[in-house]
Amino acid sequence: MSGHSKWAKIKRQKGVTDVKKGATYARMAREIIVAARFGGGDPAANFRLRQAIDRAKQDGVPNDNIQRAIEKGAGGGAGSAMEELTYEGYGPGGVAVIVRCATDNRNRTAGDVRSYFSKYGGNLGETGCVGWNFEERGEIGIERNTKLDEDALLQAAVEAGADDLDTTMEDSVYVYCQPLDLEKVKTNLEKSGYKTATAEVTMTPKSTVEVTTSDVAKQLLRLLDILEDHEDVQNVYANFEMDQDLMQEFLN
After folding, report:
1. C-alpha separations of 136 from 9, 11, 83, 177 in Å
2. CA-to-CA distance for 37 and 41, rounded, in angstroms?
3. Residues 122, 89: contact at Cβ < 8 Å?
4. Is 244 exposed, middle or buried (0-12, 13-18, 19+ CB in 10 A)?
5. Half-sphere exposure of residue 119, counting CA atoms within 13 Å on the CB side?
6. pLDDT, position 79
7. Interatomic CA distance for residues 115 and 249, integer angstroms
8. Are 6 and 15 in contact (CB under 8 A)?
9. I need a labelling partner for 114 at 20 to 30 A (CA). Which of 8, 90, 224, 229 fits?
10. pLDDT band for position 18 (cuts 50, 70, 90)
11. How far apart are CA 15 and CA 12, in angstroms?
12. Distances in Å between the alpha carbon of 95 and those of 121, 136, 168, 221, 248?
């Protein structure tokens, strides 16, 4: 698990979330709109939409907001102006960063993302400049409890069609699979009695950059945080490794 994945999960476990509910609701609405626009408004037939709805509910988005977003995406109109964009660049310390957005105003989004990179010691690059160093993987999170047997879970994951298992996080175990197998693996794990907390397609770095100094760590984590807090930004991926103590410095 890359440093950025650990960073995101540590924040989630410690309850360090966006306190601006409006920004959170807007971000999740965009994700639902895009999912419904490209896959239809029926969650039963649109796995991406089901996952977007689940994440929205976990973030406390009201059902009325969710339903309006589905209708907007599936019905065209204002939803048809929403588009997905990907930005790539380098953060402090030469860390590769990918930013995936959903926006109805690409000029606004591009300007904001570019300014964040510049302000926090990074450099926004051309499409493809760092994407080659990442690969898509399906990721399924299963919450730890006293009854969880990791050996049994590993066997069940392999039988479900998974490729790998990460047990390094304190509160959850993560199962990895091919992106196209995500729904199948999730369903098979649930049939085996495991309750899945998250399921999404993520970007995993093929190689990483080690961040060892406090100054670079703080500047990098500030960049990632401000990107992730932008309402147009859906996901941020970065290829750094960092000692957990440096992450904790930023949180304290």
Report:
1. 18, 22, 20, 9
2. 7
3. yes
4. exposed
5. 13
6. 53
7. 25
8. no
9. 8
10. very low
11. 5
12. 11, 18, 22, 11, 19
The yes/no answer on whether domain 133-205 falls in CATH 3.30.70.980 is yes
The answer to whether 3-81 and 133-205 have equal CATH topology is no
CATH tag, 3-81: 1.10.10.200
- CA dihedral sign, ordered 118, 23, 33, 9: positive
46 has pLDDT over 80: yes
Q: How many CB atoms lie within 10 A of CB 36?
A: 26
> Is 3.30.70.980 the CATH classification of the domain at 84-132+207-251?
yes
CA angle 166/216/129 to nearest 5° reads: 70
Q: How much is the mean pLDDT over the chain?
A: 87
Selection from 205, 223, 228 nearest residue 131 by Cα: 205
Report residue 28's pLDDT band, with 50, 70 and 90 as the boundaries: confident
Closest CA relative to residue 137, chosen from 176, 184, 185: 176
Cross-strand pairs, 204: 135
Question: pLDDT by residue (tens digit) across 135-191?
Answer: 999 999 998 876 888 899 999 999 999 999 988 887 889 999 999 999 999 999 999
- Check pLDDT > 70 for residue 15: no
Closest CA to 236 of 225, 250, 248, 247: 225
Q: What is the pTM of this model?
A: 0.83
